[in-house]
Amino acid sequence: MNIGFDISQTGAGKAGCGYYAHAMIKSLLESAPKNRYRLFPSFGDFYCDPLMPILNPYSGADVHYGPRHIARETAGKFWTASELETSLGNPDIIHANNFWCPTQLTSSRLIYTFYDMNFLVEPSWTTETNRVGCFDGVFRSAMAADWVVAISEASRAHYLRIFPHFPQERVRVIYPSSRFLDASAQGERPKALDKIAKQGFWLNVGTIEPRKNQRRLVEAYASYLKQGGKPMPLVLAGGKGWLMEDFKKHLIELGIDAHIIMTGYVTDDELIWLYRNCYANLYPSLFEGFGLPVLEGMQFGAPTITSNSTSIPEVAGDAAILIDPEDVEGLSQAMLRLASNREERDQLSKSGVKQAESFNWQNSTTALIQLYEEALASPKR
Amino acid sequence: MNKKIGVIAVDLTPVLPGGENGGAKIFVLELLSRLAEMKVDTQFILLTQAASHEELAIMDSVNMRRLMVVDPVEKNRFQPHLQGIASKILPYLPSRLRRLVSRLGYQLNKKLKHSGTGSLLRDMQVDLLFCPFTAPSYFESGIATVCTIYDLQYKTYPEFFTVADVANRDRTFIEACRRATVLTAISDYSRDSAIAHGNLEPSQIRTIYLRMAQRIAPSTENDNDVLNRLNLAPQRYLIYPANFWKHKNHEMLLTAFAMARHDGLAEDIKLVCTGAPGVRQEWLMSAAHSMSLSDHVIFPGYLPNAELATLMANCTGVVFPSLYEGFGLPVIEAMAAGVPVACSNITSLPEVAVDAAILFDPRVPTQIVQAMVALVEDKALRTQLIQTGLQRAAEFSDGERMAREYWELFQHAFANVKHENMLTGAYADGWIGRCITIQVAPSLTKQTLDLQFTAPEWLPQKCFTVQTSQGGKNQGSPVVFERGNNATLSLPVEASGGCFEIKIGPAFIPAHSGHGDDHRELSVILQNCAVVYADGNYDELFPEEVTL
Fold it and tell me: What architecture is the A191-357 domain classified under in CATH?
């Protein structure tokens, strides 16, 4: 097979989408080295990483790189040209991973990775520029993609709800898996937690932003403390979001700022340590396409309290306490219960590790190769 | 100052022939007719460009006449045509103006608008310059200037414009903020954006709503030909009256319409998307096709007003999911036609529609679905929307009130002309064309005007002449200097101030002489310009501080 694969978002500082493409192509190159691969450092004109064109991040016997566009304008011109397939060498498969979607392919099978459309539920969860670009891409996929790869059943259902005309049988769920390949890693204690005992803190991972729901989390934590919950600090591990000033004010109003530890950005090793040593991982996110912090926490034995919304129940299975992310009191009750029940906590930790094992990149890659073959054997949409 | 506004120049050079200016042109022409009718003692001079000069003949009246100041087409090809027009006008102009016009025919015939060079307005004794298309291109210091701001969409959605377009619009906006005596915005939303982005004092800009006599008169006859032709049944279709610009959000509307049909919206309800044919229309048609909506979404293309009115009068409702409006005239037009409306709850639309429409977030398809279903199915709500809509439209139908509000603003501007030192005609990078104007404000002490020019070595012309004039009279003999040198002027100014015109020549166009793609007509570089007072203080007019 001649596979064209979008790696535009796999550069330094990659987020969820970039990681999915990165892990998939690494795993593909290992499992199916005989295919011919053409990797695209730029793909469309929505996402542009100026460093990507000078990198050769993946190698293999038959691995080639597509055009290296530095400017958005030249990339746009190339990817929207009508002779695109010819200039790409008529690949059997073109796999889009960065939300952008070509619409002019006549023979290559177009596979489109669909993450989620949180921006259709609450537009303020992202910037307007990002919202416009993402929706434009997803809309085009609904016109032109031959197959859609959804990263969860919930995402798949949402896609079909928004685009009821799209053939259901052509939306396939292929789960991501943990970014951490070594489940026995011990990690490294972040400096900010020097004086904190192991299993003596609550953890929340992710950028501080409305969708991640940290405002309600800290309200629930305040209520937990008020009701006599065991006084463990709450560690917020993640970059600062765009409403940070507001958030800090909120902590002071709640009178709990002294109990909150904000680590800022943490390294992967530090993150592993946090997952391994928290009392529990709290992840009351309002909307997810998948919910990687839930899976990754479980992988390292973090007992988990998380949302019953969107894709999260699929990830958590019955190995977590699920709460309504909009119900502050429900969350604080769950925390009180878990804080006073060490046995339940340890049980959750064990069942979490087991649940995490049911996700692995090998299964996902096998499913993706099978999808490529199926796509090639069936007509374009 | 109890003087009356005798002459108003209106910059209509941005007017393009036909419908290319969209709603703005219709509004401007309507406003001008009313102003001319209302103020018979005031002369209106419409500054035009060749392409639309003839078309604007409909505006001619006793106190309104046209003056073509820009011929945008290549000089050589159209020289005879231009001369033809000029010879038609010239006999009717006073001799001074005649000279001016023949000079303009020669000078401005360069596809380029000079930023306020010369003394066109002053020569015609213009009291106020009105720039209804925002850009104060003909600004002259000391003459009251009013600019209309429509919207600042390029600030919110730069991705919907080319980079050059964003730069251009930004320059226009900054110029308007800097030059206008007072600005007007077509909604509070636009006014607030202008204040925020232009760092304006709230008193510098006033909202004057578009109030236009019903533009689309509901058709009186029962001529339903257009319905038959488009295979539409009365009361069984929704309309989105909008061009296919990105911010009009058609993709989201198609998505929502397909969802609504899936959710059980009556099978026979169609969606009509008016708007001019083009690449975007083709893309949306193909999208509708792949969404299996071909039979349900109608793209009628261009429709004459009467047909559009018939279409509007017979529809179930108007759905208007635009992401950005400065006002949203189609919403008012639909209300005037007695049609229930559902529209976006962002930018100017909630301000215009208030409670007379179903409001939804145009970025959330489920909300658009609910709104469409309600428009079609909720009879009680429909009745109520039609009623409140008619009332709302009535509030916006008073064109006379709009003209009156503009007139009040003109008077306000006229009484508040800035009397400050001001330099016009220099580009931000220091290059100047054939002419710069400097207005020097009255001062308690004696003052001098100091200027320094430089002519780089590489210029195509060898030698430059600088001639200063005040009130049309040359001051002293011309200063001559060669390329590779500087020239310095120091002009004494009366305490009462004055307006100086400085002509520099010859000029060249860099792009035409192999110096990059700069199409401006340039002479030399202004290095410094300052008004120096007897006490040693000074006001530096160039280089200017960048405040925006």
Answer: 3-Layer(aba) Sandwich (3.40)
pLDDT over 60 (residue A88): yes
For chain A, the domains span 2-177+360-377, 191-357
Q: Give pLDDT tens digits for A181-192.
A: 999 999 999 999
State the architecture of B225-396 in CATH terms: 3-Layer(aba) Sandwich (3.40)
Residues 279-338 of A with CB under 8 A from B: none
Q: Which of A321, A303, A286, A369 is nearest to A29 (CA)?
A: A369
* Superfamily of domain A2-177+360-377 in the CATH hierarchy: Glycogen Phosphorylase B; (3.40.50.2000)
Q: Which tokens belong to B208?
A: 């004057």
| Among chain A residues, CA nearest to B162 | A73
- Distance in Å, alpha carbon of A28 to nearest chain B alpha carbon: 32
| Predicted local confidence at residue B217, as pLDDT | 64
Confidence of residue A71 (pLDDT cuts 50, 70, 90): confident
The matching CATH number, chosen from 3.10.20.310, 3.40.50.150, 3.40.50.2000, 3.30.420.10, for B7-213+401-415 is 3.40.50.2000
| Distance of alpha carbon B294 from alpha carbon A5, whole angstroms | 33
Q: Which residues of B touch A167 (CB under 8 A)?
A: none
Task: Write out pLDDT tens, residues B103-116.
Answer: 333 333 333 344 44
Listed by start position, the domains of chain B span 7-213+401-415, 225-396, 422-542
- Is A191-357 in the same CATH topology as A2-177+360-377? yes
Q: Does A165 touch chain B (CB under 8 A)?
A: yes
- The string of pLDDT tens digits covering residues A278-309 is 999 999 999 999 999 999 999 999 999 999 99
Residues (pLDDT < 50) of chain B are 1, 74-117, 547-548
- pTM of the predicted structure, to 2 decimals: 0.84
Q: Is residue A153 within 8 angstroms of chain B, CB to CB?
A: no
Kindly provide the ipTM of the predicted complex, given to two decimals.
Answer: 0.94
Asked if residue B403 lies in contact with residue B38, where contact means CB atoms within 8 angstroms, the answer is: yes
Q: Phi and psi for B11 in degrees, rounded to 5? A: -80, 100
pLDDT band at A319 (very low <50, low <70, confident <90, very high): very high
Please report the pLDDT score of residue B75 as a whole number.
40
Which of A189, A121, A103 lies closest to A158 in space, CA to CA? A121
- Residue A220 CA to residue A328 CA, distance in Å, equals 5
CA distance A210 to A126: 9
pLDDT at A93: 98
Task: Choose among A108, A111, A84: nearest CA to A97.
Answer: A111
DSSP tag of B114: -
Residue A111 CA to chain centroid, in angstroms? 19
Alpha helices (H) in A9-80, listed in sequence order: 16-31, 72-80
Read off the tokens for B294. Answer: 């071909």
Taking an 8 Å cut-off on Cβ atoms, the answer to whether A119 and B363 are in contact is: yes
Cα angle B424, B426, B432; round to 5: 130
Token code pair at residue A247: 């958030």
Return d(Cα A204, Cα A251) in angstroms, integer: 15
CA closest to A46 among chain B residues? B159
Instruction: Name the token pair of B416.
Output: 């508040």
**Which residue of A lies nearest to B364 if distances are taken between CA atoms?**
A120
To test the contact with chain A by mutation, choose from B162, B163, B246, B251 the residue with the greatest count of A C-beta atoms within 10 A, namely B251
Q: Decide if domain B422-542 falls under CATH 2.60.120.
A: yes
Query: Using CB atoms and an 8 Å cut-off, which of residues 112-131 of chain A contact chain B?
Result: 119-123, 128-129, 131
Q: Which among A128, A129, A162 has CB closest to B255?
A: A162
Range from A85-89, A156-160, B467-471 carrying the lowest mean pLDDT: B467-471
* Chain A contact for B267 (CB, 8 A cutoff): no
Same fold, B7-213+401-415 and B422-542: no
Residue B407 and residue B37: Cα distance in Å, rounded?
12
